[in-house]
Amino acid sequence: MNDMSSAPVASPDHPPVIRRLDYQPPAWLVPTIDLDFALSLDSTRVRSTLTVTRQAAGAPLRLNGDGIAVAGLTVDGHAHNAWAMDGNDLVITLPGDRHTVAIETVINPVANTQLSGLYASGGLLCTQCEAEGFRRITFFPDRPDVLSRYGVRMTGDAAQFPVLLSNGDPVAQGKNPDGTHWAQWNDPWPKPSYLFALVAGTLVASRDRFVTQGGRTVDLAIWVRPGDETRTGHAMRSLIASMAWDEAVYGREYDLDVFNIVAVSDFNAGAMENKGLNIFNTRYILADPETANDGDYDAVEGVVAHEYFHNWSGNRVTCRDWFQLSLKEGFTVLRDQQFSADHGSPPVKRIEDVRILRAAQFPEDSGPLAHPIRPDSYQEISNFYTATVYNKGAEVIRMMTVLAGPERFRQGTDLYFDRHDGQAATCEDFVKSIEDGAGLDLTQFRRWYEQAGTPRVDVALSHAGDTVTLTLKQTVPPTPGQTDKQPMVIPLRTALFDPATGRHAGEHLLVLTQAQQSFAFTGHASRPVLSINRGFSAPVAINNPTPDADLVFLAAHDDDPFARYEAMQQLVVQHLVAAITDQLSDAARDLGRASIGEAMAAILADPALDDLMRGELVILPGEAYLAEQLSPVDPTRVRAEREALKAWLGTTLASQWHALHDRTSAVAYGLDAAARGARKLKTQALVYLAPADPAEAIRRAAAQYRTADNMTDRQGALMVLCGLDGPERDAALADFHDRFADNPLVIDKWFSLQAGSLNPGAIDHTKALAHHADFTLTNPNRVRALYMAFAANTAAFHDPDGEGYRLIADLILALDPINGNVAARFVPPLGRWRKIEPARAALMRAELERIAAVPTLSRDVREQVGKSLNG
Ligand code: TRP
Ligand code: ZN
């Protein structure tokens, strides 16, 4: 058997392990597939006609299926009996090297609660085929290295399904006398099955046009439910900007005459890059000032760009197998980050990206689910759509841009697209192309694809005469299955500041390649202040205990905005870690707070800072990032010390926060950077006042809520009110629900705000909300809104009695039979037990064991729970 999709036999509680090194090329190719759909919500008939060509002598044709049965089968137009089911696979014995195989299946979209394959979303029919959903529609070699030309015909009731969409170009349509109508779509570009898409239903289009650099006119349409078309403008502008940017920056032009986007309310992920027919979660399309906050606007822009960029990084060059997922995702995340940076403030974008990496990826890298950006094995591939594959994957390619510089990096990507256009490629193909095109030696650098874990770099600086010696030591921590680690290539942008002048004599790129290495710099009469990993040039944890005074200096003077932010973060992290671990005398606490207060006051007063950047600098390090610095951690202490510092800053700088709130409240709504910066600071001021002077915070927040003409201000005010108690809180929550009762995306916010709140009652509120009439387990956005916010709410989730753990475990068990893919996403918070203090760790483990004892778990949850207990 030389087909990697034929898995070894395994029992349900031990799903088979798929290994990267077992890859075998497909035994048969499928140059063309014609699909004919007779659409119906509960019984859609699919006729699939494949031309198949033999690649390996003797092998039968093995087609994957999942929950479907053969309703008819012919080979070359004749009945054919030489087939059998092997588990879920359909295995057909074929005499020759080229045949036409026709298969009929019947599927029930409304019964498809997994939202993978063909499913119904509020009366619409739509598909989600990545990673392995196509096999839930028809039998097929459902692996990304089988590329086919698709022809799709669909017939359906004209009133129920007025709009009929698929990939590629619309080539014909017509009406039937029985009230049905049909459409034919052909996609000229061969593609893997995971990029197939179909949508049918009542939708309205917002339309625009884009003319490519080569002169092709592309008809753009964003399809939404009637009534939502007034909220598609930002997505359309983002799409057009993305198309222009990819031409200008990467030389990539669009390659079809139409580009369609459809927004659906029920979606497992953010969006999907199906060729010519992207399908989106509504939350990444719909935006207007009243219902979307500034973060939502950025997310729409970023995700629209991301899916569009996949047309080259993912579709024209796709993945050979799913172990190569970061080939498309890491690279595409980097591309969307670069695009958003170019369209806004590059330093602010960089800070936000690093904050996400630290909050989501660092904990993954230090926990039981740690894996390299190119994993070596999996049980369920859906579990590998992770911050590691996506965000660390982007960081790894970003390091190549640091090493090569932008021009040479571009030569590398040009070579990559040239060499591999139309192919299913590997991460190795990408690295080799960058190596050859950019003229780099990436031999040792390849370890970033092989080794999991966040490298730690210990820094020591010594000064003698006029020479500074920097000694850097790197350690890559052990991770499950990887005990011995080799040194990585770590590019560190570095500067040495003269504290007397506040200047440095130029930045150095230090490339650390050894376990330990020293770098010497002359011409330093006095001991300089070190600024290292500027711009976050490497995704590592720097360990460089630094006197507060130096950090206060860098926070005020570093000419790299990221480094300023970093100095401020380190100043606070050092202080809070000492406080949480009881290493602060009262005197040291006072001194530490004084330094932080001094730095914060300087940031608030600095006229050279724009408000967007100021808004980043005043945000304290998050609880998850703080917890990463501690093992084991008592999460209640993290919350308490962080809140205590906030309260102290709120009190000490009260007049500054008042003045800031007054100043920013006078700025009119706009989408420009100045107005956005003002909105960010407006709510930040309330965040500091809330623990310091709750009455004043409530007064200001209630007024901000009442007068808000946009969602950023309204949601910010409601968040602050939610964390406090009083009639203003209850009134604002009730008003918010009433005002937006018919807008599910805003009602999601209403759930999240309460579950994620600093309010001591958050756990009870969450339990009550689970029984609210608006709550449902069948809509992933609603489930995430309530329970992801709760799981990220440190104090509530880590309730000392284990009630929070029980709540999440109960959710996993209730959701798993409905949607295993989404249910599995809730396992990692419980899986962090090894890093938590022993009493809670035992409670977390007990919940994992309670889940593991259920015999009918999905493969998704089974894998995550098994690894969380034993990994
Ligand atoms: N390829 C998608 C993206 O990153 C991700 C995605 C869409 C996905 N739908 C999914 C991942 C379903 C897992 C399951 O752009
Ligand atoms: Zn993607």
- Return the average pLDDT rounded to an integer: 97
Supply the CATH superfamily name of the largest domain.
tricorn interacting facor f3 domain
Each distinct ligand: tryptophan, zinc ion
Please give the domain count: 6
Which structural class fits the helix and strand makeup? alpha+beta
How many helices does DSSP assign? 28
Q: Strand share of the residues?
A: 15-25%
Low-pLDDT sequence parts: 1-8
Report the CATH C-level class of the largest domain: Mainly Beta
Number of strands: 32
CA-CA gap between termini: 30 Å
Instruction: Characterize the overall form.
Output: globular
Radius of gyration: 28 Å
With strands numbered from the N-terminus, the spatial order across the biggest sheet is 6-5-9-3-2-12-15-14
Based on the coordinates given, report the CATH architecture of the largest domain.
Answer: Sandwich
Helix content: 40-55%
CATH third-tier fold name of the largest domain: Immunoglobulin-like
Biggest sheet character: 8 strands, mixed
Description:
With 871 residues, the chain is α+β, with helices and mostly antiparallel strands. It has six domains: 29-226 and 238-279, tricorn interacting facor f3 domain (Immunoglobulin-like), CATH 2.60.40.1730; 317-450, Neutral Protease, domain 2; 461-541, Aminopeptidase N, middle-beta domain (Immunoglobulin-like), CATH 2.60.40.1840; 545-652, no CATH class; 654-729, no CATH class; 740-871, Alpha Horseshoe (Zincin-like fold). Helix content is 41%, strand content 21%. The chain has 28 helices and 32 strands. The strands form eight sheets. The protein has an eight-stranded mixed β-sheet with strand order 6-5-9-3-2-12-15-14, with no helix packed on it. A five-stranded mixed β-sheet has the order 17-18-19-21-20, covered by helices on one side. The longest helix is centred in the middle third of the chain and has 20 residues, at 346-365. The model is unreliable at 1-8 (pLDDT under 50). Bound molecules: tryptophan and zinc ion.
